[in-house]
């Protein structure tokens, strides 16, 4: 019995000792130039009632319960959120330094409790331009210290998304990502003409610029009919090295044959659909937010199955990049 107790004590002690050796502190700073004057952007950010228009978190759960203090745009003003997906917490204005800086305190209550400092800096950049800096510094609760090194990467993606959405609220013609999380869907089996690619991100962008027109021209030259939107299917993705193994594809009739291009059949299944309205330059953020939404919703992705990126319209036919529509499909259980 004594031996069992010792073993249990060791099993408990070892991870606690490991956690005690970790630094739980983290810091994040993201910046974006916005073509408005300092006062305009300062007034927008200090008014918590505007945050639901551009918050990178509230877009995941638009019906989140929000409460505001009587003066949410003043020092001491606050707003709180409570949702089943985004958790619960409170953000408070602690101090305004003229129109140059806002200092805030953020309290997370769920899914775990923690407190961090948040501050904004507004740097004038000539006439009617302001460099906006969004900062956070804090520490993870003891049992979550192992997450501290990853927090800057996670928060940076959210901050980047929020800053672009904020710019879209303030600049009439700005490029802005708009995302919706549409839910589980069933995709049918598809036959497609394909071009394979394996390599790094920048090379993939070039390959797609050349590859999809080639696929389209082939369909036209052969008198074939595309049975759906062009898409990319990602078989393997290494985010650390940004290495991709994928197929560019145009769906065609099942009986299609080709001596020049490879015809492949892709199985259907259950997927979670996320829609991006905006430039392809925002696709990296959209993929991050799609996976973040699954994690917050406690939906498990099937990493061994291929994900898809479907191009719903032709970017050459829209009047603004904000009208480009791309659907992301992540396989789920």
Give a verbal description of the structure.
This protein is an alpha+beta fold and 333 residues long. The protein folds into 2 domains: 22-173, Alpha-D-Glucose-1,6-Bisphosphate, Chain A, domain 4; 182-331, Regulatory factor, effector binding domain (Multidrug-efflux Transporter 1 Regulator Bmrr, Chain A), CATH 3.20.80. The protein contains 5 helices and 15 strands. The chain has helices spanning 2-21, 38-46, 151-170, 201-221, 283-296; strands at residues 25-34, 65-68, 78-83, 87-97, 101-110, 114-124, 130-139, 178-187, 190-200, 231-238, 243-252, 262-266, 269-277, 307-311, 325-331. The two termini are 43 Å apart. 25% of the residues are buried.
What features would you highlight for this structure?
333 residues; Alpha-D-Glucose-1,6-Bisphosphate, Chain A, domain 4; Multidrug-efflux Transporter 1 Regulator Bmrr, Chain A; 8-stranded antiparallel beta sheet; 5 helices
């Amino acid at each position: 019995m004594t031996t069992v107790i010792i073993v249990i004590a060791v099993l408990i002690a070892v991870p606690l000792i490991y956690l005690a050796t970790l630094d739980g502190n983290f810091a994040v700073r993201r910046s974006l130039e916005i073509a408005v004057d300092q006062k305009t952007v300062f007034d927008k950010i200090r008014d918590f009632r505007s945050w639901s228009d551009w918050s990178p978190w509230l877009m995941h759960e638009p019906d989140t319960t929000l409460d505001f203090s009587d003066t949410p745009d003043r020092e001491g003003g606050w707003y709180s959120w409570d949702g089943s997906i985004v958790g619960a917490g409170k953000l408070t204005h602690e101090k305004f330094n003229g129109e140059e800086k806002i200092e805030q305190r953020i309290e997370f209550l769920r899914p775990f409790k923690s407190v961090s400092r948040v501050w904004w800096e507004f740097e004038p950049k000539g006439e009617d331009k302001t460099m906006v800096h969004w900062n956070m510094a804090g520490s993870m609760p003891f049992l979550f210290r192992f997450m501290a090194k990853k927090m800057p990467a996670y928060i940076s993606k959210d901050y980047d998304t929020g800053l672009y959405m904020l710019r879209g609220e303030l600049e009439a013609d700005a490029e802005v990502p708009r995302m919706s999380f549409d839910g589980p869907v069933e995709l049918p089996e598809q036959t497609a003409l394909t071009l394979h690619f394996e390599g790094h991100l920048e090379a993939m962008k070039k390959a797609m610029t050349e590859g999809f027109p080639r696929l389209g021209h082939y369909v036209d030259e052969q008198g074939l009919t595309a049975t759906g939107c062009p898409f990319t299917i990602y078989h393997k993705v290494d985010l650390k090295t940004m290495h991709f193994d994928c197929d560019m594809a145009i769906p065609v009739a099942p009986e299609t044959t080709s001596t020049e291009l490879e015809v492949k059949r892709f199985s259907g299944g259950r997927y979670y659909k996320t829609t991006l309205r905006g430039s392809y330059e925002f696709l990296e953020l959209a993929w991050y937010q799609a996976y973040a939404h699954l994690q917050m919703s406690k939906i498990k992705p099937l990493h061994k199955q291929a994900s898809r990126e479907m191009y719903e319209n032709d970017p050459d036919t829209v009047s603004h990049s904000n009208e480009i529509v791309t659907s992301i499909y992540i396989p789920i259980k």
